[in-house]
Amino acid sequence: MSDPAPRSATAATAAAPHTVDPAQVQRLTDVVTRLRRALRSSIRTDYPWESLPMAQVELLQTLATGPLRVGELAARQRLAPNTVSGLIGKLLESGFVDRQADPGDRRTARIAVTEAGHRQLADWQQAHERRMAAALSLISAEDSAAVMGALGGLEHLAIALGEEPPTA
Predict the structure, then answer these.
(1) Is residue 21 a part of any domain in this protein?
(2) What is this structure's pTM?
(3) How far from 60 is each of 65, 88, 128, 132, CA to CA, in Å?
(4) Domain that holds residue 116
(5) Rounded to the nearest 5°, which phi and psi values hold at 103?
(6) Which of 37, 67, 111, 159 is at a distance of 20 to 30 A from 76, taking alpha carbons?
(7) Burial of 113 by CB count in 10 Å (0-12 exposed, 13-18 middle, 19+ buried)?
(8) Is 124 within a domain?
(9) Is 168 inside any structural domain?
(10) Looking at the 3D structure of the chain, how many domains does it have?
(11) pLDDT digit of tens for each residue in the chain (168 aa)?
């Protein structure tokens, strides 16, 4: 089954309103929660070297597209600036990010991913992809196809919830 043609964030959220079964919404919420928990615990079990907290991984993923100021990063992650500052402090200590002068405003700094950070992020991504591929191979071909067929709709749901569309 092929993905529907990608739509812009506006198109994804501007669809005609329709009634949604509350029981199905609860089921979706429960499944997403269980899936996140299972991914987190399985990656720690299968790849014990992977100790980077998810909040730090998400910051690295956001910064991988280019350096940002702390305030910009906080806004994109929908976190308080002091929370982001604390996470950045840990990433600085680990050598995964560094501070760079902001060419537009010398009073502020931008945070950028280092080579070590890019390697860590790539390792994390590859470990998750291997884990997902292994899990998908354990379920029926029909269920695997259904999961893959739902990706377009799930991306649109993420956009409707306020996430920025993925960049190519």
Answers:
(1) no
(2) 0.72
(3) 9, 9, 15, 20
(4) 39-160
(5) -60, -25
(6) 37
(7) buried
(8) yes
(9) no
(10) 1
(11) 444 444 444 454 467 788 988 999 999 999 999 998 888 777 776 665 567 788 888 899 999 999 999 999 999 998 999 999 999 999 999 999 999 988 888 888 999 999 999 998 998 888 888 889 999 999 999 999 999 999 999 999 988 888 766 665
